[in-house]
Amino acid sequence: MMSEHELKALRLRIDSLDERIQELISERARCAQDVARVKMGTLAEGEKPVFYRPEREAQVLKRVMERNGGPVRDEDMARLFREIMSCCLALEEPLHVAYLGPEGTFSQAAALKHFGKAVVTRPMAAIDEVFREVAAGASNFGVVPVENSTEGAVNHTLDSFLEHNLSICGEVELRIHHHLLIGENTKADSITRIYSHAQSLAQCRKWLDSYYPSVERVAVASNAEAARRVKGEWNSAAIAGDMAASLYGLTPVQQKIEDRPDNSTRFLIIGNQDVPPSGDDKTSIIVSMQNKPGALHELLLPFHTNNIDLSRIETRPSRSGKWTYVFFIDFLGHQADPLIRDVLERLSTGAVALKVLGSYPRAVL
Predict the structure, then answer these.
(1) Which of the four, 22, 229, 301, 355, has the lowest number of CB atoms within 10 Å?
(2) What are 12-62's pLDDT values in tens digits?
(3) What CATH fold (topology level) applies to the domain 179-262?
(4) Taking Cα atoms as reference points, which of 260, 268, 186, 266 lies closest to residue 227?
(5) Which residues is 193 bridged to in the sheet?
(6) pLDDT category, 175, cuts 50, 70, 90?
(7) Is 52 buried (19+), middle (13-18) or exposed (0-12) by CB count in 10 A?
């Protein structure tokens, strides 16, 4: 059994380590301020500084995980450094990040996971509004959902890329846990209505069929909106996540009710800057091909020839004509890589239209 003397000695050691950690964080923050001064001093007249470098942050976080020796998990260590980096970046220039609101949505959780809690988050009412907010320069970046592992592509996001000239600067993968939540005036056995986003209702369909088969299911704009409604009602429940539950003071009746235990959503970071290679990147493009036999083979052949790994391909109706389609394609590699450049050049010669949405670091956390 540990003696009182040994316990006191360990606590003193922890206090000393905390002091050293705090001193090093402050030193890092001062260094970040020096970086900002150097950047500002080298700008040409009218040129705007670039403080946030997605490829640089991805490289730092990967090195953090590679040199981690435990006992703290790699992902947890990287999250600690993410918050340190977020605070230091805020000293240079606080980032403003638009997301699909209201407050408490998974999109906000994705924004905080990617940028850290020192950013200023701005809720938008619709995905297209997130695009417009960033295109207008009112926010530095935007966070939008693009696909769910259970329900597939988020078509509103794909369609918005057809209308706006923004770049993809990063991606976030968020593990999605859904909870059945009620307010303080609601009893679990008196629920007659369940609110949630349509995709969340679909992701919990089997669970709802088993436990609440006769209860009305009402689709709303977001899970946070569902939580807000439930707060003022006595006979309803919401399907939402931890942030919404905390924000609106709701109590979980049942946690983790999603049908698939690996349920995840991928979000994209959209902005107005091109991202240099990080060493582990993805590229996203939109391609429109002629409506003729063999068009799909012609589209995929350059990827096969250069041994490029496709990670996603989706089709959406084109705005240019009836029964014509565009392809959204994600693949591994950066557009600056020679093999990727060759693929893009081959596609551009055979495609009706080709739009590179951006190259960006693969999700680290």
Answers:
(1) 22
(2) 999 999 999 999 999 999 999 998 888 888 887 777 778 899 999 999 999
(3) D-Maltodextrin-Binding Protein; domain 2 (3.40.190)
(4) 186
(5) 216, 236
(6) very high
(7) buried
> At 318, is the pLDDT very low, low, confident or very high (cuts 50, 70, 90)?
confident
Q: What is the pLDDT of residues 220-253, one digit of tens each?
A: 988 999 999 998 899 999 999 999 999 999 999 9
Q: What is the H or E stretch that residue 139 is in?
A: none
Backbone angles phi, psi at 328, to 5 degrees: -100, 120
What is the phi-psi region of residue 333: left when phi exceeds 0, alpha when psi lies from -120 to 50, beta otherwise?
Answer: left
Q: What is the mean pLDDT of residues 257-271?
A: 95
Residue matched to tokens 């939008």: 144
Closest to 174 in 3D by CA, of 121, 116, 108? 108
Q: With respect to CATH, is domain 274-361 assigned 3.30.70.260?
A: yes
> How do the domains of the chain map onto residue ranges?
179-262, 274-361
Cα–Cα distance, 144 to 111 (Å, whole number): 9
Task: Enter the pTM of the model.
Answer: 0.90
Q: What's the gap between Cα 323 and its chain centre?
A: 32
Q: How many CB atoms lie within 10 A of CB 209?
A: 10
